[in-house]
Amino acid sequence: MARAKGSGLPELRATGGGRVRMEDVAAVAGVSVATVSRAFGKPDSVSPELRRRVLESAERLGFRPSVLAGSLASARARIVGVVVPSLLTSFFGMTLEALAGRLGPAGYQMMVGHHEYDLEREEALVAASLDWSPAAIVVTGATHSRATLSALARAECPVVEMWEISERPIDAAVGFSNREAGRAVARHLIAGGRRRLAFVGGAMARDLRAAARGQGFVEAALEAGLPEPRVEVLEERSSTAGGIAAFARLMDADEPPEAIAFSNDFLALGALFEAQRRGVRIPEDVALAGYGDLEFAANSTPTLTTVRPPHRAIGTAVADHLLRRFEDPGAGGEIIDLGFELVARASG
Amino acid sequence: MARAKGSGLPELRATGGGRVRMEDVAAVAGVSVATVSRAFGKPDSVSPELRRRVLESAERLGFRPSVLAGSLASARARIVGVVVPSLLTSFFGMTLEALAGRLGPAGYQMMVGHHEYDLEREEALVAASLDWSPAAIVVTGATHSRATLSALARAECPVVEMWEISERPIDAAVGFSNREAGRAVARHLIAGGRRRLAFVGGAMARDLRAAARGQGFVEAALEAGLPEPRVEVLEERSSTAGGIAAFARLMDADEPPEAIAFSNDFLALGALFEAQRRGVRIPEDVALAGYGDLEFAANSTPTLTTVRPPHRAIGTAVADHLLRRFEDPGAGGEIIDLGFELVARASG
DNA sequence: ATGAAAGCGCTAACAT
DNA sequence: ATGTTAGCGCTTTCAT
Fold first, then answer.
1. Residue nearest to nucleotide D2 (CA to C1')
2. Residue B49 — pLDDT band, cuts 50, 70, 90?
3. Are residues B294 and B74 in contact, defined by beta-carbon separation less than 8 angstroms?
C-alpha cells in the first residue's frame, strides 16, 4: 500500500486502498496536521479562511477523522458505557433512547450491555466498558458486587447509578425511591377502603428494585395497622402468564385479598385477563394496581391504576448531568431524585 | 504524573495515578512488551513459562490492556455497530440481547443506535459507527438512503441487514419476508371463512416492514378474489390507543369487516379492549390477528392469533455469521431466510 | 520463541 | 493563529 510521505504535492490522492489521513488533508489544504486537527476539534481557534480550506479539502478527499486515534491521543473516548438489566422492557428502552437522544448530538456513542439482573455479569460488563476508557459509565441500580464497586470507584470517569437513589452513591445517582413507590401504592389501595392486601413480585430475588417496591408496600400496610399482606414471588419477570398464575392462586385462597399490587403492569394485565375469564369484577371484587404505566395501562378494560416511573426523565437527566461534567471536569457527582407518579385509574 | 521510564526495576509500581501499561508488566515479568502483547493476544505463541510469568505480573499490577491502543495498532476495533429503528419494542430488544449474548463472550462490544425509522438519522448513525472502524456493522431493513448505501458499500467490514431479506443485499442479510408474513395472515383469515378483510398498520409510511406486511395482506386477499381490504394507516406505531381508534372506525363503518389484521400485537390488544367495551364478540363478530407474538398474545382473553417473527434467531444468526467471518476474512456475505410462524389462536 | 523498533492516526504541549 | 514535535499504548514486521 504505497503512500506519498513528507510535504506532498497538493494533488488528489489516487482512489482505492488506504484510508485518508489528516496528513493527506493537510497536504491538500497546504497547512499542518495540527491545523487540520484544530479545524475539526476546536474550529474557533483556526482562522475562517484556513478552516474553510481545510474543511473543503477534507470533504474533497472524503476524510473522516479516526476516532480511535483521536481517543488514544487525547486519552478519552467519546463513549458512554451503559449497563442495564434488560433490553426487553420498554423501561430501560425509554431511558436509553432519551440518553442517546442527548448524547448522540453531542458526539458520544453508547456502548450498551445487559446482564439479566446478574451481578456477576454486570461485573464483566463494567470491566469491558472500562477497558474502552469511556467518557462515563452508567449502571442500573444501587447494588453491585464488591468487584464492580471497586472497579467503578477506581474509574477515572463519571459514574452514574440510575433508576434508584441511594444515600451514598458511588459518584452520582439519578432515579427515584422504589420503596416509596411501593408505599404509595399501598396507601392508595388502603385509602380506597381495602384492608386485605397482597403483593405480586416478579423475580424479586434478583430485581432488587421490584423487591424494594414490595418492601415499601408491606411496610405501609403494617404501619396502617392492616394484617401483613401476602406476598407472591414469581420466578419470571413481568409476564402476563405470571400474573395469571399469581392471581389464580390468590383468588383461590380461603381469604382472597381485596386488593393486589403487582410489580409490573404486564403482571396486572394477566390478572385482568384471568379476572375476565373467571367473571371476577375489577375493581368491585378486587382492586388491581400495576407498575410502569406502560401504554396499555391507560386503555385496558378497566383502565389500570399504576405507578409511572420517570423513565425518559432519567435518561435525559443522566445525559445532562454527564454533559455538564464533560464541560466542567471540576464538577462532581450529585443525587437527583426524579420522583414517580401514582396514576389512579379504574382498576383500583 | 511521574512515571519511571526505561528498563525499570522489577518493583511494584506505586499506587495511585497513571495507568498500568504493558511496559510495566513487561518490566515486572522481565520480558519485552512484545511478549506481553503476545501473551494476551496469541497465547500459543509464547512459552508456557513466560506466559505464566506475564499473566501473573499483569494480575499483580492490575493491568488491563487498553483496547483503544490495541484497536488503533491493529486497525480493527472489537466493536459491532448495530443500528435499529427503536429501543422501545421487545422486537429489537430480543435481537440485541441474542446478538450481545454471542458477541460479548467473543470479546466484541455493541455500539447501539436507534433512528425511529428515519433514514436520515440512520445515515448519521451509520457514519458515526463507521468512524470507529468497527469489526462489523448491522443495520435494520433493506431500504436505506443513497448516502447510507454508499457508506456501507465502502465500509471495510462485514455489513449485515437484518429483519428483512432482499434479493441483493449490500453484503449479507438475515431475516424473513415481511410480505409473505402479511400474505400468510390473509390466507389464514380467508381459510376461516372471512371475506371482508381489513388491515391496520402503524406508521407504515416509515416502518417499511409493516408496509410490506400490509402489501402482502392486500395482495393475498385480491388473489383470493375477495374485495380489496380496507387499510387503516395510523400515525403512531404499535399502541393500544391506535388499535382502539382503528377498531372503532372500522366497526362503525357501514359494512364492518369480518376480520382485521394488525401490524402489531399491541394494536390488536387495543382492539380486544375496545371490543370488550362494546360487547363485540371476538371472533364470532369479527376475527382479529396481530403480529409479533408478544408474550401477552398467548394469554389474552381471547388468545390472539398472530405471526411470530424469528426475533432471537435473527440475533443469533447475525452473530454466528459475523463470528465466522471474523475468523475467516475470506468468507463473504450470505442471505439467511429464517422464516416466520403463523400462530393460530382463539381470536381468529 | 523472543526482542527491537517502527508505526497506527491523531492530540497537545510548546514554540514561533 | 499556525507549525513542530512528542507521544497515546498497543501490534506487528523483521531480526535473532
1. A35
2. very high
3. no
Please check whether residue B127 touches A, CB under 8 A. yes
| C-beta of residue B305 within 8 angstroms of C-beta of residue B268 | no
Asked if residue B237 lies in contact with residue B222, where contact means CB atoms within 8 angstroms, the answer is no
User: Residue A116's closest CA among A238, A245, A200?
Assistant: A238
Burial B80-101 (b: 16+ CB within 10 A, else e): bbbbbbbbbbbbbbbbbbbbbe
Q: Which long-range contacts (CB under 8 A, 24 or more apart) does B191-195 make?
A: B192/B259, B192/B283, B192/B287, B192/B348, B194/B257, B194/B258, B194/B259, B194/B287, B194/B348, B195/B226, B195/B227, B195/B258
Q: What is the pLDDT of residue B19?
A: 84
Closest by CA to B139, choosing from B209, B201, B38, B57, is B209
pTM equals 0.93
Share the mean pLDDT of chain B.
93
Predicted confidence (pLDDT) at residue B12 exceeds the cutoff of 90:
no
- Chain A 221-260, CB below 8 Å of chain B: which residues? 239-241, 244
**Residue among A160, A146, A172 at smallest CA distance from A335:** A172
What confidence score (pLDDT) does residue A24 get?
94
Say which CATH topology domain B178-308 has: Rossmann fold (3.40.50)
Ranges of each domain in chain A: 15-65, 76-176+312-339, 178-308
Residues in chain B: 348
Same fold, B76-176+312-339 and B178-308: yes
Q: Cα–Cα distances in Å, from A272 out to A247, A267, A277, B103, B192?
A: 9, 9, 9, 39, 28
> Domain A76-176+312-339, what fold?
Rossmann fold (3.40.50)
pLDDT at site B16: 45
Q: First and final CA of chain B: distance in angstroms? A: 71
Q: Is the pLDDT reported for residue A31 higher than 90?
A: yes
Give percent of chain B above pLDDT 90.
91
Task: Please list every residue in chain A whose beta carbon sits closer than 8 Å to the beta carbon of residue B242.
Answer: none
**pLDDT score of B185 more than 50:** yes
DSSP state at residue A258: S
Supply the angle between the helices A119-130 and A146-154 in degrees, to the nearest 10. Answer: 20
Q: How many CA atoms lie less than 13 Å away from A310 in the CB half-sphere?
A: 21
Q: Residue B183's CB: how many other CB atoms inside 10 A?
A: 20
A160 by DSSP, 3-state: which?
strand
The closest CB to that of A64, out of B71, B97, B131, belongs to: B131
Q: Which helix (H) or strand (E) holds A82?
A: strand A77-84
Proximity of residue B4 CB to strand D below 7 A = no
Question: What is the reported pLDDT for B179?
Answer: 97
State mean pLDDT over B237-254.
Answer: 96
Instruction: Give the residue-averaged pLDDT of B275-303.
Output: 98
E strand or H helix at A80, and its extent? strand A77-84
**What fold characterizes domain B15-65?**
434 Repressor (Amino-terminal Domain) (1.10.260)
Q: Do A276 and B93 touch (CB under 8 A)?
A: no
Residue A58 CA to residue A293 CA, distance in Å, equals 49
Within 8 A of B240 by CB-CB distance, chain A residues are 295-296, 299-300
Phi and psi at A269, nearest 5°, equal -65, -40
Q: Write the pLDDT tens digit of every residue in B162-178.
A: 999 988 999 999 999 99
